[in-house]
Amino acid sequence: MGNREEQFGILENFKAQVSATWDSPYAEGFSGCFLFTTDFSTWVECLKDIPQSILLKSSLNECATANLFCSQGLYKHAMISLRLCLEHCLYAIHMSSNDFYFRRWKAGQEDMKWAAITDGNTGIFSKSFIRAYAPEFEERSAELNGIASNVYRECSEYIHGNYSKINCLPGQNEFNQDMLSQYISRFQSISYLLSIALVIRFKEQIVSKGLLPILENAIMHNIGMLPEIQLLYGRNGD
After folding, report:
1. Cys staple from 109: which of 17, 48, 81, 104, with CB 3.0 to 4.6 Å?
2. Has this prediction a pTM greater than 0.90?
């Protein structure tokens, strides 16, 4: 068999994995991952004029790539893309509040640091940061930092070769229902984090520019149950 035929054979195997994914009991949950990609694209469009939009676009691309990898049974690569999606969006938010570090990053003088994003005193989920932009979310600081640390660690274990993670991965091009379930769970944690982080940082901007109606579906799909969001949309007590 030549290289051309071998490549087409691989594509046929991927088609089988895609079918198995959408025929599984987790199809509805996986559909929610695709819905978030649409929601996230609305955010990226609304924030296209901020200097850090290049990272938001990269995050959106990694989000879509993660879904594609997962549907094809490439679970390790899906988890890696999920981590990049998380990192790039949260780093964009982090640097949007500090032009000095953003300029250093653009000049190649500053690296993306997860520790800076989640720093307990100055990170984007710290009480001081939340208090500066959306104080009504301040009491969620510990919850958000906890979720961020956990999901980052879980995704990172596939990069660093954690034994238990490698051991649970199926063979090449094999559908695995448990891995699909794990992916959906981590994706939901990340979609929650990104949605709430974007609202916290850019609440003032989206309100002043009249973007709340445009972002309503994107926000409500992911964090609409929160009382802070209900209040933002004037639905408190409905």
Report:
1. 104
2. yes
